[in-house]
Amino acid sequence: MTDSPPVIEIRNLHKAYGALEVLKGVDISARRGDVVSLIGSSGSGKSTLLRCANLLEDSQQGEILFKGEPVRWRGTGMNRHPADPKQVLRIRTNLSMVFQQFNLWSHMTILQNVMEAPVTVLRRDRAEVEEAARRYLDKVGIGDKCDVFPAQLSGGQQQRAAIARALCMEPEALLFDEPTSALDPELEQEVVKVIKDLAAEGRTMMIVTHDMRMAADVSDHVVFLHLGRIEEQGPPATLFGAPKTERLQQFLSASV
Ligand code: ADP
Ligand code: MG
């Protein structure tokens, strides 16, 4: 098991929006069971990196591997795109994303939200998906909210529903983009608790977060991104306890 390839591996990734270079050669990977947190100032490229990882964004150079399988591309540079839609679908559905703004469908109940993609995208058996959806909603503590609409829930409950929805895809890894940033401080902790539980059960996760305490608590590895490059990385105790670069020192002292 220990020498199985990482669930997600990114090598020398370059990404630009037009003339704006956002990622300038980033290497990052997560092995099965790893929790990798990404920290860095606003605009440093954290969201872009996650979106490139699950192929929501194209990138111009570098490799992305899912369980050792490289993404196949056609074209080069600004004209580079994934070559195989089936591969994209397989990778994207295996790297389930949880967004800052929850992105629940407002016209569907919570249960329908959680069931939608497994049924329509993965074409799984509806009854089995419903059973799993109820189990995941229970797991995140909102098993009693199946039949209500997102607007009837607090932000913390909506985000927990979004996590249940990601889990119901039965993905290989979860990608979180600032999952607690839209929440009031008192609701933040209920989402942090769910993420801690997922880490404790050995889920593979990449988490973009501004919450240094959560990053310190749940991560195996922390990556500090600065202007599209990895400025410093390491185990949380080292990164938070003894930051080496001045940029990380400044970032951390501004984050408390
Ligand atoms: P972070 O998540 O670290 O705050 P982002 O990855 O969102 O950073 O953004 C990195 C840079 O890319 C920023 O300068 C941002 O303005 C720019 N950017 C992000 N998305 C787009 C886009 N769709 N089009 C053009 N520029 C973008
Ligand atoms: Mg972002």
TrEMBL record:
Keyword Cell wall biogenesis/degradation: no
Keywords: ATP-binding, Cell membrane, Membrane, Nucleotide-binding, Transport
Pfam families documented for this protein: ABC_tran
GO-annotated molecular function: ATP binding
Organism from which the protein derives: Seohaeicola saemankumensis
Name of this chain's protein: ABC transporter ATP-binding protein
InterPro entries referenced in this protein's UniProt entry, alphabetically: AAA+_ATPase, ABC_ATPase_HisP-typ, ABC_transporter-like_ATP-bd, ABC_transporter-like_CS, MetN_ABC_transporter-like, P-loop_NTPase
SUPFAM superfamilies given in the database record: P-loop containing nucleoside triphosphate hydrolases
Main location, first listed in the record: membrane
Keyword Phosphoprotein applies: no
Compartments (UniProt record): Cell membrane
Bilayer topology: Peripheral membrane protein
Membership in a protein family: Belongs to the ABC transporter superfamily.
Segments forming domain ABC transporter: 8-252
Domain of life: Bacteria
